[in-house]
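Dear colleagues,

As part of the handover before I leave the project, I'm documenting each prediction I ran so the next person doesn't have to rerun anything. This entry is a single chain, and its sequence is reproduced below.
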Amino acid sequence: MTRWILSLAMLSALPLGAQQDKCLDAANESQKKWTAAGPHSWLDDVWHNEAVEIARTWCYVWETHGMDRLDKGIDFGRAFFTGDGWHPVVGGIVPGSGFAGGLGMQLERNTAAPALRYSGSVEARGSYNGFWVAGGVLDITRADNDPDNRHIHAVIEAREYELPQLTYFGLGNASLLANESLYGLQATTAGAHVDFPLPGGVSLIAGVGGLVADPAPAHGSLPSIEQKFTAADTPGLTTGTGYVVPGAGIKWRYPEAETMWGYSTSLAASFRAFHEASGLPYSFRRIDFTWQNVFRPYVRVKPAAAKAGPPRKVGLGAVSATFRLAESWGPAGNNVPFYLQPTIGGTDIDNIDVVRSYRDYRFRAPNAMAFQAEYERSIKGPIGLLGFYDVGKVGMARGDLDFTHMRHSFGAGIVVTAGNLPVLKFYYAWGGHEGTHTTYTLNTNNFAGTASGVF
């Protein structure tokens, strides 16, 4: 950490004109000296390369002006917040956690025999109001040459969550806003799964995990959950649960490679069996299904008369349509604990935003479905405009998921992307019968966990 701080300070002290000439030279000179002083351990090389890349990208920020400087700033942010080595991490933990920050480390290494690529990260994040998460993930992939670029890979992960104040409104599509209350949740998840790629953009997934969840009363500006509800209307109100969770799934993508223009589609479906080891009777089964379609239209623009060459493609943004479905059921006498039931409204506990004009976690039940249509277009560099329409519904029984009395939202906002992934969303949503909702989501790291289940 000290090495790259010193590098930043030295380069920042140079006049702007000198910085423009010395950015790449300083990086190359640092690498030459490091190589001459070798050999070095693998980890020492990681720390050194991180320091050089941060210093180089920071230096280049001052070479440019306007939007070009913003692009260079995105490059610096990518080096500062991601990649191998230690990095600060910022972003929310779950909706309601507020701003959170912490420290993470990411490492990647290849081995020749066997030919494997190991990519892992560990992280701890906390917020000012007592939320925190800590854990790690290790991805192991075959690194040998494959003409179709299909590789079996395994993922091992574990996380611990402390979520002291989450909102709850009751169960069902007709729950009342007036019943808003608070509860706390401590959750520990661990698991492993293996992806088996097949021809045609198909992958099969199989895994097993464990989940321990423990709800608790909460203290804040709203009533605690036990002041509004009882165990009779809220399964698991006072009961912690522990599960062994085997499961399997399938993913499909067309076309297999990322496409810049035209149409693409992807589908993901999974089945998980939550076998309870404690806190009976709360065993259940769950199916999750997501289907997304994206169309990226473009126009062909002829070059100016003074320039030669064929017409170039100019993108008109991206139109997407996404359908999500979650269905849960259990053996006779069993229920799904309220804190493991899917929600729609605002953003859910897995940071998926659905029916965004409503409060976070607004509608909750064992079954849920949602449709989303979005239009996103870059307006300058990494900054884009977002427009959307959401509809959704939850149901206590699977038969309740019909197309009547669905909740809906309209909205617009701004998206900032880095490496084709959104790092910041800010939007204003309206529609429905409960007013409007303005929110933002921020995340600079790759720690994509879930507090509601495993893999």
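The longest strand covers residues 181-198. Residues 1-19 have pLDDT under 50 and may be disordered.

All the best with the project,
I.
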